[in-house]
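Posting for a labmate who doesn't have an account.
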Amino acid sequence: EGATHSNRDTYTVEDAFDFVAPNDRTGYEFLGWFDAATDGNQVTGIVLGSTGDVTVWAHWNAKQYTVTLDANYTAGTNGSVNFTYGTKTKSAYTAVSNKFGYTLLGYYTLAENGVKILDANGDIEGTNKSGWIDADGNWIRTTADSKLYAHWSAITGIDYYVYHYKMNADD
């Protein structure tokens, strides 16, 4: 799915050749040709003297992409998260540092405004986010060095007090 190859379709007992890797498949690494759809043994080609029909399957591994999570405030510590292409699976999530007096709303494409891509827990938020999330809510971004920005909301309704103490010993 998503890749083509230029391997021969027929051979004779007098032929010997190596299988050629298919062209790139977005978001995946080619692992090789195998003699079974899952698991199986890797097959590199046809050896001289071979006979019979041969069926081989291309095996792929979905790539992981790391996204920097920008804390989006001066004293903040950035975080990061990894996503596996074509899935909702995240790993190695490190949240940005807390911003005292604020609630983390999620991670967006721009420092101000932008499109919300991840919720406050680093999970995918919604579907059909152009270049980021597909119609099924799966990760599809393949750009290296991607960055999302934390957006914050001030916590309201809390009164903070200022206490004044005598500053001079003579008072």
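Reply:
Got it, the structure tokens are right above this. The mean pLDDT is 91.
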